[in-house]
Amino acid sequence: MPEPSNDRRRERLAVWASALCAALYAPLVFGFFGRLHHSLDLFAHFRWHLAVLLALAGLFALWSRAWSIGVVSLAMAAIAFATTQGIAGMPFSGPQRAAFQAADDSQAVYRLLHLNLRYDNPTPERVLSLIGRTHPDIVTLAEVSPMWAGKLKLIEAAYPNPLICGSDVRVGGGAILSTRPISGGRCFDRGTFAMATVNLNGRSVDAVALHLGWPWPSDQWWQIGRLAAPMAMIRSPALVAGDFNAVSWSAAVTAMAKAGGLHIVDPIGASWFYRRAPAWLRPWLGLEIDHVMVKGGIIVRSARILEDVGSDHAPVLVEFSLGRELEQGQPVQVVDDAF
Question: Tens digits of per-residue pLDDT, 206-238?
Fold first, then answer.
């Protein structure tokens, strides 16, 4: 039997490349319509992963001379990836973004550290060491299990009168620690939502620690509905930090931001990755599901991921200042208006 010609090989490769691109189109497009059905929002979590795969498939299509498929695939990949970066004017890119601003020597700079502790973290000493080294003014925590409630007593001298919610639950609830006075602490939704007012040099700031459940088919959207009322209670200025179990451009995070009139601090970076996998892969393959949102006169200076401390979530550190007093409902400076 004669060997197939190079043209025949290219034709076969073009068919395979076209099929590969078509297979990636569906899940990528589904993720843009999470507001229509909660199951579709699940695909949004992997949008940038799918965009990268589609770009590679598009290059393969061009190489195999499937020109139209290759060009369309590269264009779709570029647009999809852009929506994950909060580019101004880009639709489907999630909540409004809070603008980063350079430090001003005339304003005090505060620190907020957020971390999902993981209820059974085998190395709690690494978490306590991180808090001691970074010395944040406010700490928001998720999965504060009974074990963690005991461990946090070791830093009560630096963080007196903490608000700890749901610590009697096996997986644990939320907690707010602060070096500054805390008042008006309240717990909602079995401890997954902790809210308190922190006094920062005479300015009252609402702080919230929250932990959403897993996406569809789990109970995430039912929880979003239950938390609509507490989210609406958040006053300006405010900081909301938590494990949302959803990426910043998802319909779930958009719904939470709208419920509280909040703007997301983004981009921060991938914060979750399978904890038994190599940590160096997290920035490339992990998911950005731990977020900080702001409201009112919060000026965001910087936001970054810190080193691994034994949880499957990485710590998030945000530096911020308090701007001039704003009227209730007046927005912070934002990067874009896209929803």
Answer: 999 999 999 999 999 999 999 999 999 999 999
User: What is the pTM for the complete model shown?
Assistant: 0.87
Instruction: Report the residue count for the chain.
Output: 339
Per-residue HEC secondary structure of 258-318 comes to HHHCCEECCCCCCCECCCCCCHHHHHHHCECCEEEEEECCEEEEEEEECCCCCCCECCEEE
* Separation between Cα atoms, residue 115 and residue 211, nearest integer Å: 10
The predicted-structure confidence for 61-97, as pLDDT tens digits, reads as follows 999 989 999 999 999 999 999 888 766 555 666 777 7
Return d(Cα 241, Cα 271) in angstroms, integer. 13
Confidence grade of residue 337 (pLDDT, cut at 50, 70, 90): very low
Instruction: Count how many Cα atoms sit within 13 Å of the Cα of residue 282 in the half-sphere of its side chain.
Output: 24
What's at 241, amino acid-wise?
A
SS3 content of the chain, % helix, strand, coil (to 5): 35, 25, 40
